[in-house]
Each structure stands twice: as C-alpha cells, then as structure tokens.
Design brief:
Blueprint (H helix, E strand, L loop, with lengths): L5 E2 H12 L1 E5 L7 E2 L4 E2 L17 E4 L1 H9 L2 H11 L8 E3 L7 H10 L3 E4 L3 H16 L2 E11 L2 E7 L5 H10 L3 E13 L3 E5 L7 E4 L3 E4 H5 L7 E3 L2 E7 L15 E4 L2 E10 L5 H16 L4 H18 L1
C-alpha cells in the first residue's frame, strides 16, 4: 500500500510548531495536495526556463532565490513567477529565514491560488527537517502480522502461524535484554535508500498479548529501556511447525529472501518443536546476520576450507 497524498493544510497543522511555519497568503488554497517527498529550489525557473521544472514538489525559496527576486526587473520577474506558479499540481511555496516576501512572489501566489508559507528556519535546516517529515508521511507502507524485536541492534521480524509462540519468544528476548518494537501488528515503511523501517500502531504501542496472560504493558513491566518506537527491519524469522518429513537447512548455505514493499531481506526458517530455545536461536541468527552484513559468511568459509582440505588429500 502506498502512503497517501495529503493537503498543504494538513502539513501546516502537523508541522507548524516544529518547523515554525506560518501562512502568508493562500489560506483558501490549503486543499492543494502534497504528493512527493522531494523539495525543489526553483533556480532557473525564476528566469523563465521551465524545461524539467519539478512543479509537483514543494518550492523552497532560500537566500539565493530571494536575492534574485530583489535584483530582477519587476515586470519580467512577475511574468516568470506567474508562468512558474501556473501549474495546478504545484503544492505550495515556502520562504525560509523568516525573510520578507517579495511583492511579485506574493502577487503571483494570489493570482494562481498557491499557498505561500514562511519558516523561521534557515534553508538547510528546513530542507532536511521537511524532507524527513514528508518522507515519513508519503513513504510506501504496509502492515504485516508478526512481532518486531530489536536484537543486538538488528531489527528482527518474527512471523509464523497463530499460536506458534511468536509473542512468547519475544517475551523471552525481552527478559534477555532485547527491545520490543511491535507485537501482533507491524507497520512497515519503505524509506529512501531502499530500506525498511518498522513501527507499532499507536493503540498497540508498548503492549503485548500473551496467551494465558492476556494484554501486558511492556513499558511498566520491563522499563522504558525495553521499548523502541521504530527500527530498521533487517532480518525475517519464520517460525514453522516441526515436520520430520520436511527438508531443513543443516549447513546455512541456502540463502532465502522475503520481499516486503519491493525490498528483499534475509529469511531464516526455524522449525518449532518442544525443547528448542527459540530466543537463543534468534540471538545467534541475529549475530550471524551482522557478520554476513560485514562480508563474513561462516557456512561458506567452512565449506570452502573443507573442499580445499579434500582436494589437498586427493592430490597428496
């Protein structure tokens, strides 16, 4: 599922305090929609060159753009601004540094019904903070059934059929000092840089459902250090019922992946049977995955050394 577009009015309501935003004009046009997370510095568009102009982005006027507006010939500037702001998909214009707004810019915004906002932040800070806020709001997202736990700094998504012991396993990991992010329902976003970030829906945050115990408050029972708002999802663990007839990877040479929002992450299938300490297995799997991410593959290295030893004996 994709993150839905939202209005400029919603942007102002959600970020006005954090980004120190104010509406200069265009209050009646706050229903314009923000559809992409990227920002645009108009640059050449101010001089009338509109080829490849990214009108669908929030337009940021920093010190450079404002200096150009002050130095440009008024009539030509008005014409160029009018042509730039004529696109109906342009969401809004944002002036930084709490700077005075050039009359030609405010007039063009009023003419085309474009919201004109201003922030007290400098351009670099505003661009960084606003881009992060827009990405969080607009990133592709989905929800999956499972438990998300931070194990040794690695976000581990534990999945499996109902009643197989996902929450009990997460509870044991908590007792061993690891951190809960989400239980039962995990919200996952595809973030810039092709990585996944998981979090917990607000009504369920800090809580777990354990069969036989019911709903427990993890924050109260284990302390603030036992919970985390979000983490990168870097490993998937599938808990599966033990089947003596099923083929189980004994060497670790098989590489499995699971795709979530078009991002592939490693998948490890762990058979569940009485007596297996799943929490310890997940800890070891997490540590092994960290080694893999650093380029060290234990099973492959062992296999290579074994083959070299066999070849050496044959040639002796």
């Amino acid at each position: 599922m994709q993150g839905a577009a939202f209005t400029v009015g919603e942007l102002v309501k959600e970020q006005s305090e954090r980004l120190r935003l104010e509406v200069i004009c265009g209050e009646k046009s706050l229903s314009r929609r923000v559809r992409v997370a990227e920002l645009n510095r108009p640059g050449l568009a101010l001089s009338g060159f509109l080829e490849r102009f990214r009108a669908e982005r929030v337009q940021v006027f920093g010190a450079g753009e404002l200096a150009y507006c002050r130095a440009a010939q008024p009539k030509r500037l008005s014409e160029d601004l009018s042509a730039m702001l004529a696109s109906p998909e342009l969401p809004c214009v944002l002036v930084t540094h709490n700077a005075p707004v050039p009359p030609a810019l405010s007039q063009a915004c009023k003419k085309h019904g474009v919201p004109l906002l201003r922030s007290a932040f400098d351009t670099a800070t505003l661009s960084s903070e606003l881009a992060e806020a827009l990405e969080a709001r607009l990133a592709a997202r989905t929800t999956v059934h499972g438990v998300l736990v931070d194990v040794y700094g690695l976000g581990v998504l534990i999945q499996g059929e109902a009643g197989i012991g996902k929450s009990e396993c997460a509870l044991e990991l908590l007792k061993r000092g690891h951190i809960l992010v989400a239980d039962d329902v995990v919200q996952i976003q595809h973030r810039r840089g092709a990585y996944l970030r998981g979090s917990c829906p607000e009504p369920l945050k800090n809580h777990m459902e354990v069969r036989g115990l019911g709903i427990i408050d993890v924050k109260l029972l284990f302390g603030i250090g036992a919970i985390l708002d979000r983490t990168r999802v870097e490993l998937a663990i599938s808990l599966e019922p033990w089947n003596a007839q099923a083929t189980v990877d004994r060497t670790g040479l098989e590489t499995r992946k699971i795709s979530i929002l078009d991002v592939e992450i490693p998948l490890i299938r762990i058979p569940v049977s009485p007596g297996r300490n799943l929490a310890v297995l997940i800890e070891v799997a997490s540590l092994n995955q960290r080694l893999r991410s650093q380029g060290y593959f234990s099973a492959e290295n062992f296999n290579r050394r074994l083959i070299e030893r066999m070849n050496a004996k044959e040639s002796a």
